[in-house]
Amino acid sequence: MSTRNRVEAETGLDKFNRIGTFTNVGFHAIFILLALVCLVPVLVVLSISLSRIAGARIAATSLLQSR
Amino acid sequence: MDTKSGGKRVRARWRTQDTELTLLALPTTIWYILFCFLPMFGLIIAFKDFKIHGGFLSNVIHSEWSGFKNFEFLFKSNDAWVVIRNTLGYNAIFIVLSIAVPVTLALMIGQLHSGKAGKFYQTLMFLPYFLSWVVVSAIVWAFLSFDKGIANQFLADLGKDPVNWYMEPKYWPYFLVFMNVWKGLGYGMVVYLATISGIDSTYYEAAVIDGATKWQQARFITLPLMKLVIVMMFILAVGRIFYTDFGLFFQVPRDSNSLFNVATTIDVLVYKQLKTATVGMASASAFVQSVLGCVTILTANWIVRRIDPDSAMM
To answer: Which residues form the ABC transmembrane type-1 domain (chain B) (predicted)?
Structure first.
């Protein structure tokens, strides 16, 4: 949304139709937690993919099944 | 093309728009004919003593009819009850959660003050959808491995005994449900967010003037307007209630024998039995799943039509 549109929106009814600041912070906290739960495993997989197999076996502990 | 005009049938003119629409539909139609309708011929394998040697068509034609013999293993197996219970039970939970959780989160994400943050969270939650179950299985193993897993290291830090997670069936229904929700969350949210963004903002403006709270707006405006999509997703999910995600139930529990009672579904059983069974048995299983899926989808649609005719699909 451009600055002009945002100003227009906030001067309209949208200004009165928003969740409270405390609720907004709570929602952000929930979504940050969920985003981390989704992001961290993907980053781990990515880092393992870019690692040397010998190093990955040691550093990534059991992510790769030891033989 | 015939249309009725004043009680008389008149032939409507074929317009340019009709040609465009036909051309648009043609690739999908061809795809369906080639990959959905033609392979149905193979269903007769379920009723034949089919053996793989030589040409496929020649084998199908010349192999002997076996009646319902291929279906017997599905119902006479000692594990039939466990497998059907798991398949239906897990799918029932998945259907409820795959609607409730994304709808709730879509409602919440639409309320955030910052639209950019909402889109950012949505993108991140979509990521697990792109991971294969084999990779997810490795991640779960990293957490739950007995000797090197993060979970047992955490328990050791707390001074507790390690748990052999892959030998303890009582935890796995929760793990499997969590993994399914985790992987499908972002994908499910997209559908519901698209529906929410399509709702006319004047409804909310009128509600604000009438003094409606956010909860009342969600309950009396957003959810009723999402009902059609929710019901459609429900009916489509019910149609696949006899199918399960093979990767989730086979890869993630790592084929542990201790988890047989909680992690074996029809698809996994068929795969395991295929090691010793025949192609005919696998076809029979797929045939049963398709027929029962068709029956459940029609039943669900019939129930929906009885409750709310506008929400029914057919």
So the answer is: 84-300
Q: What is the pLDDT of residues B75-85, one digit of tens each?
A: 777 788 888 89
Task: Supply the range of the domain harboring residue A62.
Answer: 21-67
Q: Which residue of A has its CA nearest to B145?
A: A62
ipTM of the complex: 0.76
Instruction: Please report whether residue A63 resides in a domain.
Output: yes
User: Which among B108, B145, B147 is the nearest to A27, CB-wise?
Assistant: B108
What domains lie within chain B, and their CATH numbers? Answer: 78-276 (1.10.3720.10)
Contact between B131 and A41 using a beta-carbon 8 Å cutoff:
yes
Question: Which residue in chain B has the smallest CA separation from A33?
Answer: B121
Q: Which long-range contacts (CB under 8 A, 24 or more apart) does B166-171 make?
A: B166/B253, B166/B254, B166/B256, B166/B258, B166/B259, B167/B256, B167/B258, B168/B258, B169/B258, B169/B259, B169/B261, B169/B262, B169/B263
pTM of the model: 0.79
What pLDDT, in 10s, does the model give residues B79-120? 888 888 999 999 999 999 999 999 999 999 988 888 899 999
Q: How many domains does chain A have?
A: 1
